[in-house]
Amino acid sequence: MGNLSLIACPQTDRRSSLDNASKECSMTIWQKLNQANTSNGDHTFVKWNHDHLTSTIKDSCQEEAILQTDLQYQKDVSSLMEDANGNQAEKNSYNPWALHCHKQHLNRMSSKYNENKPHQFLLLENVVSKYKCPCILDLKMGTRQHGDDASEEKKARHIKKCEQSTSASLGVRICGMQVYQADTDQYLCKDKYYGRKLSPEGFRQAIYQFLHNGNNFRTDLVEPILSQLKALLSVIKKQSTYRFYSSSLLINYEGLEKAISLDNHSQDHCQHTSCPISQGNSYPNVDVYMIDFAHTTYKGSRYNQTVYDGPDHGYIFGLENLIKIFQSIPVGE
To answer: pTM of the full predicted structure?
Structure first.
């Protein structure tokens, strides 16, 4: 379906570029896996068997710092994408908007990078990998979205988007959403264009929809989400000179209501990190993340062009309105 498969080896020395050992290791893995999948003649969208991948990596990388190969498998549920008018498109086995962005990224990579040469990349964590049926809400925060380095054309474009959306009226707008529907075993998906067209009341209804699984309203999620939003608000209010332009809040929760037992790996992981996964039904699995800091600035930052005073009031405005909306949800439903 356009899944991007990349093979990487860790960089053992952070001060230098890719060393020869890592280059040889990466290339050996890539070549072996491609040789094993020549039957279909198209290596771009190859799906590699987990056991084969593990053994190939171990054979090719003899050093200690080899990749962890415990792949996470998600429940295979379909998705329904609705347009801005609420009309449902055909049923898909993937998130259509995610695939659209994914293919765009693939095209950029294929035109920019030589596939036969190793390159350095930042490896990002998949923060929903621990969920069986992840429900995800991406919220663009603040009343201003352009960075200090934006051109006049880009600045005008972002100002217009804010003025015509809930970014101006609420200080927050929806950039994307997927919600697991337990009654149909499907995901309900919304994209950024849907979010731009919402009125303040439409935004509130979308938040309610984010907490509805098709059978019932997940009132058990309201308090843990609120507690994290309030904690974040208290921190943001203390951050003088910071401006989080074009950053987002990512709110994730487990779509399966029944308790999910942790395997040994997850239990060991929770002993060493801050892990919100619960062992039972006492507390739902919810995460709130600040993400996307490409245009964040503060006094003393490397690319700081303008020094601001006090906290980011546009971000605070959005966060306070978001808290009010969650507080208005009747938890007794």
So the answer is: 0.72
